[in-house]
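Notebook B, p. 112. Complex prediction, attempt 2.
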Amino acid sequence: MDYRALAATIESLTDGETDQIALMATIACEVYHADPRFDWVGFYRVTEPELLKIGPYQGGHGCLVIPFSRGVCGACARSRAPQLVADVHAFPDHIACSSTTQSELVLPVFDASGALIAVFDIDSDQIDAFGDEDVGALTTILARVFEKA
Ligand code: SME
């Protein structure tokens, strides 16, 4: 996976844009198409306290609303920390939007003030598809785009 190329593409496509939905749509598209491991890629936005609502995504349908108390996405929002789930069937509170999903990575998304604005969710039909390189590279991409002053 060429994260250097992906980061450069996203950087050039989003340069000068500040609209969060436009940025999320562009990142969801670019990341989804960057690697065959990624079968669902999208954002859940913090739209009210303790609530995530579906944002721009690529792949099959995603559920529309996830409270902070539920699922891998909720665990990420609560902890404000990356959630790497190698086998979703071993994660008791996993919310199955697709029966083919085997592993999942969810990252927190912050704005320039440090507020949590969304979580970024990537699902794979492969077991144990994600590693530290994915966490690091995608965290850097999200920070560059959304934490711009
Ligand atoms: N699996 C997620 C829900 C979102 S869908 O996978 C798109 C979760 O448990 O939070």
